[in-house]
Amino acid sequence: MSLTKKDLIAKIADETGLSRNWAECALNAVSSTITEQLKTGVEITLPGIGKFSTAQRAARTGRNPQTGEAVQIAASTAVKFNAAKALKDQVNA
Q1: Count of domains in the chain?
Q2: How far is the C-alpha of 66 from the C-alpha of 88, rounded, in Å?
């Protein structure tokens, strides 16, 4: 089971007393801010939750699993997330 965006908006609205429209605006603002900052290489730390960062992946040669043919995989930027100790402790409690 997963929490959808609609479910998350409803949960935010219930917990904060905001309307669902305002909760959606807040969630969208957080999401777009994180995305914009990661694009520029800025690391984002959310206390008690974790840290978002980026890492460069070099170009490499892979294989097509169906044909075994060599395929060139382009260099890319990967998003990394490291959970905070507080979050890990709460999940494991």
Answers
A1: 2
A2: 39
pLDDT tens for the 93 residues of the chain, in order = 899 999 999 999 999 999 999 999 999 999 999 999 999 999 999 999 999 999 999 999 999 999 999 999 999 999 999 999 999 999 998
Q: Where in the sequence is the domain holding 78, given as residue range(s)?
A: 42-92
Tell me the β-bridge partners of 80: 53
Between CA 46 and CA 61 the distance in angstroms is 36
**Token pair for 7:** 């479910």
Name the nearest CA neighbour of 37 among 47, 24, 46: 46
Task: Give residues with Cβ within 8 angstroms of 3, minimum separation 6.
Answer: 11
Q: Which two tokens stand for residue 10?
A: 């409803």
